[in-house]
């Protein structure tokens, strides 16, 4: 778009850190949050890029985030690492707990990393991508706020509950997918509202339970799951594994905890980390090659792998910087000046 504002990755990252430090986050906390926002902006995942800085700042200003959060890491069972985020952002807690979780997975072949009491607003793929770069296969799950109706129902129960998976590859960037279990991420509906665009059909119902393509009606009503009952079941799985299993909030409880303040969700997150070298020993190489046959069979017929778009966007952003719409740029400038 012709009028977009171009920023280098370094300048945008520095802006992000200044804004977060300006609202009172410690340097380490601000760095962890800025890193995940910038990764999304760089890879053109705009619903979770710089736009999210507005929600993070709002959440901090609501007074619910612990500005001095000190995440604590404990080993609650041989294969289970738990991080209490202390009501800070999830990305800071993850950074704190990941080294022990990776050492545990290396030793045992499998580890679970449970993060509790964290504010979570980000895309999940940066988390599993880092693990795959260390040779692990990984899954990440987190609830959000109850915005999504179960298949066959009309009132919100589930969060948009993303699910991410990564598989390590030897000569290529990892195979990764990461998606909301709702038909579309809430962030995309918000962006469509800002841009004055209609939603595609089938993603939401209004407060009376009628199908709607109006983003404002959708935000007031209920979002729908992807794939009907299948997405609904997966959304329930995310609630259970990253909620009650780890002693943390359901999306219903996270929304109640927000008390109408429109803050980003506060709850838990679960990562499962698998070390293929422990499963396979000296058969690792041959089996990673067999996995490549799967990827070849997909791409040989012209289909693309998930994350291919992101990796292409990443190269573009590294070369040319990022482009953001003027209204968002102006809002970011106001945050910096405040
Ligand atoms: P998308 O529907 O945009 O993408 C889902 C996945 O499918 C991506 O891995 C994408 O890869 C891949 N994909 C898309 N099109 C194709 C295709 N034609 N062929 C093969 N693969 C394809 O994701 P969502 O909108 O559902 O979610 C966006 C982000 O929102 C996620 O990162 C998620 O973690 C985040 N989110 C976070 C929440 C939270 O509570 N923290 C809640 C909900 C969502 P590619 O990127 O390369 O296109
Ligand atoms: O886009 O659905 C979403 C979302 C919820 C929390 C963070 N992102």
TrEMBL record:
Keyword Oxidoreductase recorded: yes
Classification via Pfam families: Ldh_2
Superkingdom, taxonomy of origin: Bacteria
Family designation: Belongs to the LDH2/MDH2 oxidoreductase family.
Protein's name in the database: LDH2 family malate/lactate/ureidoglycolate dehydrogenase
One GO MF term attached to the UniProt entry: oxidoreductase activity
Protein's organism: Ancylobacter tetraedralis
Keywords associated with the record: Oxidoreductase
């Amino acid at each position: 778009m012709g009028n977009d504002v171009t920023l280098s990755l370094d300048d945008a990252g520095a802006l992000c850190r200044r804004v977060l430090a300006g609202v009172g986050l410690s340097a380490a906390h601000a760095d962890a949050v800025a890193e995940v926002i910038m990764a999304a902006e760089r890879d053109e995942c705009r619903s979770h890029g710089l736009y999210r800085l507005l929600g993070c700042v709002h959440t901090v200003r609501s007074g619910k985030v612990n500005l001095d959060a000190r995440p604590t890491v404990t080993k609650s069972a041989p294969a289970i690492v738990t991080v209490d985020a202390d009501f800070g952002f999830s990305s800071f807690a993850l950074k704190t707990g990941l080294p022990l979780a990776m050492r545990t997975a290396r030793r045992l072949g499998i580890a679970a990393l449970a993060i509790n009491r964290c504010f979570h607003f980000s895309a999940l793929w940066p988390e599993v991508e880092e693990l795959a770069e260390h040779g692990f296969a990984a899954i990440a799950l987190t609830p959000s706020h109850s915005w999504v109706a179960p298949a066959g129902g009309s009132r919100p129960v589930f969060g948009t509950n993303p699910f991410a998976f990564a598989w390590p590859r030897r000569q290529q960037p990892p195979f990764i997918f990461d998606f909301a279990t709702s038909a579309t991420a809430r962030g995309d509906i918000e962006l469509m509202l800002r841009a004055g665009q209609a939603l595609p059909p089938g993603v939401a119902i209004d407060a009376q339970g009628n199908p709607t393509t109006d983003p404002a009606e959708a935000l007031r009503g209920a979002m729908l799951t992807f794939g009907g009952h299948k997405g609904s079941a997966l959304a329930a799985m995310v609630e259970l594994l990253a909620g009650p299993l780890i002693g943390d909030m359901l999306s219903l409880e996270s929304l109640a905890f927000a008390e109408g303040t429109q803050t980003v969700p506060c709850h838990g997150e679960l990562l499962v980390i698998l070390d293929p070298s422990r499963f396979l020993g000296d058969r690792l190489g041959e089996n990673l090659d067999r996995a490549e046959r799967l990827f070849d069979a997909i791409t040989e017929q012209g289909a693309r792998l998930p994350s291919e778009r992101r990796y292409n966007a990443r190269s573009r952003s590294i070369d040319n910087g990022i482009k953001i719409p003027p209204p968002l740029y102006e809002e970011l400038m106001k945050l910096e000046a405040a």
